[in-house]
Amino acid sequence: MEETLPAPPTQDERVSAMLAHVLQIFTWFIGPLVIYAVRRDSRFVAFHALQALLLQGVYFVGGTLLMILWFGVMIGGMVLVGEPGKPSAGQPVTFFLLFALVWLLWMACWVLTMVLGIVYGIKASSGEWAEYPLIGRLARRWTRT
Predict the structure, then answer these.
(1) Domain segments of the chain as ranges
(2) CA-CA distance, 97 to 20, in Å (whole number)?
(3) Residue range 120-134, pLDDT digits in tens
């Protein structure tokens, strides 16, 4: 049985799909959500906009988990400092090193989101059905493409 390929996307569809990817860099989830809501009739645009939405959802959940970890370390550090009046030599060093690690992870995720938005925006503008790693299959299943 032959698999039927969808019709190639129009110029308007390619631009809308590209905007869904690129706008997430500046507007987080709002740009892709608007494009997804307005252009759901086009499978190509819906697929690319949904991928951008899912990426922003993963970024939000990851950032929330990093914040929970950070606050847990701060509160745990305050509780485990030791006896009142006696300074703990190791706690401030650990605190600041962990802060640097959390900040670097947050920035790395932001840079990854920016790079993915640009790369997949370029692919969408050329009419490719390119999938994000890990979440592309989910978007393809939800848009039935």
Answers:
(1) 11-81+89-143
(2) 37
(3) 999 999 999 999 999
